[in-house]
Design goal:
The protein has one domain (about 1-190). The chain is an all-alpha fold. The protein has helices spanning about 1-15, 20-30, 45-50, 50-75, 80-95, 110-120, 120-135, 140-155, 160-180, 180-190. It is built from 10 helices and no strands. The termini are far apart.
């Protein structure tokens, strides 16, 4: 069972490491998403650069990278700790992809995928906050950070297992670390909006 758990975590990392944003945009448009917009391979930058249809496709694929490791671990009966580790491995794979020599995205969509499979209520609340902040401010980075911040709070209020709460804290740390440059641009008023003209 330990070997199965190890393979599940490794498989989750490798799945998370697949750079769908880069691959899909290159296949459809021939362009390198890393050289346009914010340079990020995630769905928000794909939306800005390649349009909503491709952006939604990449969002769905990045979400699935988070959902599948959790569902597979649960179906295999690997336990809560291994399931959370597999989810975190998928996020780490997206953020620090072996296929991109350690580069990657911000991990927001993959984190939400893990969260929706692990704790649907916390995931739906985080998604609702994301949508509300996007509609009000148009900044995907701010929406992502506020949505992720809600996760450990909701989990604590719902008295979810400690391993879930640890996951919630971990994705907050991941998100803020990966969004360091975005936070600086938000403070400076230079962040790129998801859509529309800059305020």
């Amino acid at each position: 069972m330990m070997a199965v758990a190890a393979f599940a975590v490794l498989g989750a990392y490798l799945l998370g490491a697949v750079p769908f944003g880069l691959l899909v945009v290159r296949a459809v448009t021939g362009r390198d998403i890393r050289k346009e917009g914010s340079g990020n391979i995630g769905a928000s930058n794909v939306y800005r650069v390649a349009g909503p249809a491709i952006g939604v496709l990449v969002l769905a694929l990045d979400l699935l990278k988070g959902v599948l490791p959790v569902v597979v671990s649960q179906r295999l009966g690997l336990g809560s700790l291994t399931t959370v580790m597999a989810g975190l491995a998928a996020i780490a794979g997206h953020n620090w992809s072996v296929f991109l020599r350690g580069a990657g995205g911000k991990g927001v969509a993959t984190s939400y995928g893990v969260l929706l499979a692990l704790s649907p209520v916390a995931g739906l609340i985080a998604a609702a906050i994301w949508v509300a902040v996007i509609l009000i401010t148009r900044y995907a980075s701010l929406a992502s950070l506020l949505g992720v911040l809600s996760v450990p709070v909701v989990m604590r209020l719902r008295a979810e297992p400690a391993v879930h709460l640890a996951f919630g804290v971990a994705i907050v740390i991941f998100a803020f670390y990966r969004h360091r440059a975005n936070i600086q641009r938000l403070i400076a008023g230079e962040e790129l909006p998801l859509f529309g003209a800059r305020k």
